[in-house]
């Protein structure tokens, strides 16, 4: 079930729980992840969704699972879809 509260963007989690505590700059973190600085910056600033490839990179760098990172993104995507699509609640169930 999707709650009323907006889920946290995975970029925000990465920034607040990994990059800042390690004292890394965006440039240094991007280098360690093997991505462009701009790519990481857009993720950290919640302007881009987390891709499966980026989830794998982050998981390897943080010794976590890519599924956990993708789950954060999926929860956010689903929450946004439900909030942006008020007509969804008016749909009728399909009988099978």
Q: Could you characterize the architecture of this molecule?
A:
With 96 residues, the chain is mainly α. The chain has one domain (10-90): lambda repressor-like DNA-binding domains (434 Repressor (Amino-terminal Domain)). The protein is built from 5 helices and no strands. Helix 4 packs across helix 5 (66-84). It is elongated and about 50 Å long. The protein starts with 9 loop residues before the first helix and ends in a 12-residue tail after the last helix.
Give the gist of this structure.
It is built from 5 helices and no strands. The chain is mainly alpha-helical and 96 residues long. The longest helix has 19 residues, at 66-84.
CATH superfamily descriptor:
lambda repressor-like DNA-binding domains
CATH class: Mainly Alpha
N/C terminus separation:
23 Å
Helix content: 55-70%
One letter per element, helices H and strands E, the order comes to HHHHH
Number of helices: 5
Q: What overall form do the CA principal axes indicate? A: elongated
Count of the domains? 1
Secondary-structure-derived class: mainly alpha
Q: What CATH architecture do you see?
A: Orthogonal Bundle
Give keywords.
96 residues, mainly alpha, 434 Repressor (Amino-terminal Domain)
Layout of SSEs?
Layout: H1 10-22, H2 26-33, H3 37-44, H4 52-62, H5 66-84
């Amino acid at each position: 079930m999707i709650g009323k509260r907006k889920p946290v963007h995975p970029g925000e989690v990465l920034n607040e729980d990994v990059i800042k505590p390690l004292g890394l700059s965006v440039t240094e973190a991007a280098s360690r992840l093997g991505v462009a600085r701009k790519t990481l910056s857009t993720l950290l600033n919640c302007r881009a969704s987390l891709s499966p490839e980026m989830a794998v990179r982050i998981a390897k760098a943080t010794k976590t699972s890519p599924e956990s990172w993708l789950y954060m993104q999926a929860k956010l995507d689903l929450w946004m879809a439900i909030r942006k699509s008020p007509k969804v609640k008016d749909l009728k169930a399909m009988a099978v």
